[in-house]
Amino acid sequence: MKILIVEDEFNSREGLAELIGKISCEYVVCGKAADGEQGFKLATTLRPDLIFVDIEMPKLNGLDMIEKILAVGMNPYFVVLSGYAEFKFAQKGISLGVTQYLLKPITYEDLKKVLEEMKKKIGGKNTCNTKLIRQMQANDEAGIDTASLLVRKTVNYIKNNYNGRISLEELAEKLNVTPEYISHLFTKEIGQSFSSYVKEYRIKLAEKLIMEGSLKLYEIGERVGYKDPKYFNKMFKEVTGICPKKYLIIHKI
Length: 253
Fold this sequence. Notes:
- By secondary structure, the chain is of the alpha/beta class.
- Helix content is 63%, strand content 10%.
- It folds into two domains: 2-141, Response regulator (Rossmann fold); 144-253, Orthogonal Bundle (Arc Repressor Mutant, subunit A), CATH 1.10.10.60.
- It has a five-stranded parallel sheet with strand order 2-1-3-4-5, with helices on both faces.
- Helix 1 (10-23) links the parallel strand 1 and strand 2.
- Helix 2 packs parallel to helix 3 (62-71), helix 8 packs across helix 9 and helix 10 (194-212) crosses helix 12.
- The protein is elongated, with a radius of gyration of 23 Å.
């Protein structure tokens, strides 16, 4: 279940994400936003199943953000987070289809209960044929799957930064998603972990450079992102089964 958190208070936002991760690995926080406008943009990009949203936020409040999301034809589930218990907020939320509220401070048990209820609702929603047909039509019209786009951007990031520092956290920040979501999505679509892909990509380039024969081994290591020759040797052997020097000797014959 893909979850988006829209909450302007940093500690509350990060704390909720951490708490969700502790409850079950099947709940994936795919994005986090600090205001309603950013939340709307992430919602339309990531297409989450469930959105946790605060009421009082800068730029665009939570209920107005929900209204805006519904206006573009999206139909995720919403859980409103608030320190307010006033009826006027609940009344507007009900009119927008909000089915759950969580009053701050959020407890582990309350959150777990809400997630379990939402899981049942989302499970039923996904088995509805008309919903599936509508989603397929939307994908056809879009011409591209959002998740695949994120993975392609991840691969491009690796190709453009393989000779320097590669950070999953930095990439996730650029893409406005969480590192956990990118890692999960990448492994699911590519069939190997982010770190494993980076290592294999670098070593394949190193093999080509060794075959060219114009650089020394330590220079090749630096060229593909390994400044420490010992670490380069270790990574090379993990991928090819032999050290760079032996690889060079074999391919010189």
